[in-house]
From TrEMBL:
Residues 131-225 form the Acyl-CoA oxidase/dehydrogenase middle domain. InterPro entries: Acyl-CoA_Oxase/DH_mid-dom, Acyl-CoA_Oxase/DH_mid-dom_sf, AcylCo_DH-like_C, AcylCo_DH/oxidase_C, AcylCoA_DH/ox_N, AcylCoA_DH/ox_N_sf, AcylCoA_DH/oxidase_NM_dom_sf. GO terms for molecular function: acyl-CoA dehydrogenase activity; flavin adenine dinucleotide binding. SUPFAM superfamilies: Acyl-CoA dehydrogenase C-terminal domain-like (SSF47203), Acyl-CoA dehydrogenase NM domain-like (SSF56645). Its EC number is 3.13.1.4. Belongs to the acyl-CoA dehydrogenase family. This is 3-sulfinopropanoyl-CoA desulfinase.
């Protein structure tokens, strides 16, 4: 009997339909993406044409329920899509990952009115955006943010700034984390999350220059007496923003794990191919034991990363708390991406260092996964705390 995969909201997809969806995406990657990545990446150019195609594919609504116009995919299917696209160009996944994190905040915590108002526009890709949490002085310690929203009639007036925000320039909205009470203790009780659409008082600064993850815009956001309708406060009640943000990070970490799996897979595949083509001492380098040891480790870790990603996604789809599983997947997959990228470069020798091949890009893209959605140092702490909490002596 055909296996059915279920999302946490009860939506279903058969394995055959999932295979077909992944095949469609692979055809698109081969036909419209693969040959263009090198130029766009080196120019750090936003891939407008590909974004239009991603809209057609429904990727901006991938995890948004069908009743709001999305595909309503389970996390497992979504993770496989992200891994598949990341094999070709990891940056593309950030354009809809961050957007879907914003959508998930509305879907999980928004009022019915907010879901009806925002989710169909998010799902079609008409209104795209991301998650605006980080500020110049704080990333990990989110409770230290300083951007402030003060109630004024039917609006809030926002002042402050965010940085490193993915889709900050090209997007039209963000899920914006602010302080609505700066005095309250504990500090998280004074934090609120809004959907902020661009308008007077909400401007973007420069596109930040980065080691990798190019093409997609990472930007500063500036709020100067920006009037934000109170109707955009997610869930309609102040003080829940920290909980709403942290609640979305499980899916965010599964996203990052999937990106790591994609980059680790690309690096492995390139290495396996090159090891059979390049010869030294009269034989393909893949016949030298030193190279075999590398490939053995790369393949094993890649597979382990994939299984951890699926394990976390399945727990998420079952509706279970999975911060530990998502943390393990994110930690292991991102470190594997970095290791595989480094080994792939070594196996390629000088060609691995060349800007004319994709190998050096994996090496520049991989470290981001160790930083984003909670650094890997923090993942280890989250995993350890859960181990202790779940196993009382
Ligand atoms: C390309 C890119 C895209 C990004 N996109 C977004 C986005 O879309 N939206 C957004 O809001 N942010 C985004 N970020 C920001 C990212 O989420 C933060 O960089 C990340 O959370 C880490 O914060 P930080 O850089 O301020 O480091 P810090 O918090 O200053 O940490 C510095 C170091 O200290 C360690 N550390 C911190 N606290 C502890 C602790 N308690 N115990 C042990 N070690 C600790 C960290 O692990 C790290 O090694 C992006 C960043 C990059 C590079």
């Amino acid at each position: 009997m055909e296996k059915i995969i279920r999302s946490r909201t009860g939506a279903e997809i058969s394995e055959a339909d999932e295979r077909q969806l992944l095949d469609t995406i692979r055809v698109w990657l081969r036909r419209d993406v693969e040959d263009k990545v090198l130029d766009l990446e080196h120019a750090d150019e936003y891939p407008h044409e590909m974004v239009a195609q991603m809209k057609e594919l429904g990727l901006f609504g991938a995890t948004i329920p069908a009743e709001y116009g999305g595909l309503g995919l389970p996390a497992q299917t979504y993770a496989k899509i992200v891994a598949t696209i990341s094999e070709t160009w990891m940056s593309l996944t950030g354009i809809f990952n961050s957007h879907l994190m914003m959508a998930a905040a509305v879907e999980r915590f928004g009022t019915e009115e907010q879901k009806n108002r925002f989710l169909p526009r998010f799902a079609s890709g008409e209104l795209r955006g991301g998650l605006a949490l980080t500020e110049p002085h704080c990333g990990t310690d989110l409770q230290a943010i300083r951007t402030k929203a003060v109630r004024d009639g039917d609006d809030y007036v926002v002042n402050g700034g965010k940085t490193w925000i993915s889709n900050g320039i090209e997007g039209g909205a963000v899920a914006l984390l602010v302080k609505t009470d700066t005095d309250i203790e504990p500090r998280h009780k004074g934090m609120s999350l809004f959907i902020a659409e661009k308008g007077p008082g909400f401007t973007t600064g420069r596109k930040l220059k980065k080691l990798g993850y190019k093409g997609i815009d990472s930007a500063e956001l500036i709020f100067e007496d920006y009037r934000l309708p109170a109707a955009n406060l997610i869930g309609g009640v102040e003080g829940r923003g920290f909980h709403q943000t942290v609640g979305g990070l499980e899916l965010g970490r599964i996203n990052i794990a999937a990106r790591g799996v994609g980059v680790a897979t690309a690096a492995l595949n390139r290495a396996v191919e090159y090891a059979q083509i390049r010869e030294t001492m009269g034989k393909p380098i893949g016949e030298h034991q030193a190279i075999q040891l590398k490939i053995g480790d790369m393949a094993t870790k890649r597979r382990a990363a994939e299984l951890l990603m699926l394990d976390a996604a399945m727990a998420y789809d079952r509706g279970e708390r999975c911060d530990m599983e998502a943390g393990m997947a994110k930690l292991f997959a991102s470190e594997t991406a970095l290791e595989n990228a480094t080994e792939c470069m070594r196996i390629h020798g000088a060609y691995g260092y060349s800007a004319e091949f994709p190998v050096e890009r994996y090496f520049r893209d991989a470290p981001l996964m160790c930083i984003g959605e909670g650094t890997n140092e923090m993942q280890r702490i989250i995993i350890a705390r859960q181990m202790l909490a779940r196993n009382p002596a």
